[in-house]
Design brief:
The structure holds 2 protein chains of 2 kinds. Chain A is of the alpha/beta class. Chain A has 10 helices and 9 strands. Chain A has a single domain, classed as Rossmann fold, CATH 3.40.50.970. The longest helix of chain B is centred in the N-terminal third of the chain and has 5 residues, at 20-24. By secondary structure, chain B is mainly beta. Chain B contains 2 helices and 4 strands; from the N terminus they run βαββαβ. The chains are: A alpha/beta, B mainly beta. The complex binds iron/sulfur cluster (SF4) (3 copies).
């Protein structure tokens, strides 16, 4: 209840903060009811707003898939690239113009199957970019095939009796490949995910944020896990926050506990720093350090 | 004593009835209504408006950018 004697200040209606970042002429979007990808876009929009970055210097690069549509919906300089090749495009952008803030926004299949090779090498070389992976544990757009992230025993169209392929543990892969920032949250943890994206954007080097997200249409339906809201409530009840956890311990079992948190936050020289330092050592004053 | 009064705006044509907003509103100010949009999705409504703090958690959760909350009055 409001205190009747207090002075009330009327505040004008505020816009939905995500709208200024979206191409509203493309709404409604194609994502299914209860799909979590849109929720991650809200987190990204808030993080970008809070980061105070100059939006003209931000580029979004997506690959193919349901999450790959993000680039097309964001009202920023965006690239919807070929399957798995978001990171090579992003690397090229960053090399050509080191002043850009380059963000790769894509799904688990695109980033870790088709583009898995690019991921580990960009992390190894510490190319300065932020990679946001919406991990729904399956291939969405192509029809529910088992992905490199699908937990053992979960069903997909290609494994109707359940998968027996050991999945990647994405934070461990990112950590051991050399990423300077690694965090995992779910679409239930909207405030944490927003903060993680903001932190990742502020890091220099290869930063990685994984967001576990419901795919009610394929993953949940094939595995009889209910709708998007059921999966959100599952995340709520089964996530364990362990900041600083050893990434080798954060692998995911089918409907098991999900370890979330910020796992890695360190400094390493970036690709461009290493190149400039090395070539200055070799050529001395003959070499002009590359600044774009 | 509550210091702020909030409200929400719902864009009915964009809603897909997932109920994330209803379930995760920290003050339980929302519920699913008896209204459906043109595509047949059941819409949320602010059924206890005085409870809303304008925190915009509904806006942060909504995957369809169909609802957002904001503060309309601050009590000094
Ligand atoms: S198929 Fe799955 S991931 Fe793709 S839009 Fe639908 S719910 Fe989302
Ligand atoms: S603004 Fe906050 S309190 Fe108001 S309906 Fe939305 S989530 Fe609930
Ligand atoms: S979260 Fe959005 S799409 Fe889902 S019911 Fe609420 S307003 Fe509709």
């Amino acid at each position: 209840m409001l205190d009747q004697n207090a002075v009330e200040t009327e505040i004008p209606e505020k816009e939905n903060p995500v709208e200024s970042l979206l191409r509203m002429d493309r709404m409604p979007h194609i994502w299914c009811p209860g799909c979590g990808i849109g929720t991650t876009v809200n987190c990204f929009a808030r993080a970008l707003e809070q980061s105070k970055l100059d939006l003209d210097s931000v580029s979004i690069v997506s690959g193919i898939g349901c999450t790959g549509r993000v680039a097309g919906y964001l009202n920023l300089d965006s690239f919807h690239t070929t399957h798995g090749r978001a990171i090579p495009f992003a690397t090229g952008l960053k090399l050509a113009n080191p002043n850009l803030k380059v963000v790769v926004y894509s799904g688990d299949g695109d980033l870790f199957a088709i583009g898995g090779n690019h991921f580990i090498h960009a992390a190894r070389r510490n190319v300065d970019m932020t990679v946001i992976c919406v991990n729904n544990l399956i291939y969405g757009m192509t029809g529910g095939q088992v992905a490199p992230t699908t937990p053992v025993t979960a069903k997909g169209t290609t494994y109707p009796y359940g998968s027996y392929d050991p999945p990647f543990n994405l934070p461990y892969l990112a950590d051991s490949s050399g990423a300077v920032y690694v965090a995992r949250w779910t679409t239930y943890h909207v405030r944490h995910a927003t903060k993680a994206i903001k932190e990742a954007l502020a890091r220099r080097g290869f930063s990685f944020v994984e967001i576990i997200s419901p795919c009610p249409t394929l993953y949940s339906r094939r595995n009889r896990l209910g709708d998007g809201l059921d999966q959100m409530n599952f995340y709520k009840e089964n996530s364990v926050i362990k900041n600083g956890a050893d990434t080798k311990d954060v692998g995911m079992d089918f409907q098991g506990k999900i370890t979330v948190g910020k796992f890695v936050d360190r400094e390493r020289k970036t690709y461009r720093q290493l190149m400039n330092e090395h070539l200055t050592n070799v050529f001395g004053e003959q070499y002009t350090p590359y600044e774009g | 004593m509550k210091k702020v009064q909030g409200t929400v705006v719902i864009k009915a044509d964009r809603c897909k009835g997932c109920a994330f907003c209803v379930d995760f509103c920290p003050t339980d100010a929302l519920q699913l209504s008896d209204q459906y949009n043109a595509k047949g999705y059941r819409l949320p409504e602010l059924f206890e408006p005085e409870k809303c703090t304008g925190c915009d958690l509904c806006g942060l959760y909504c995957p369809d950018f169909a609802i957002h909350g904001f503060i309309i009055k601050k009590v000094a």
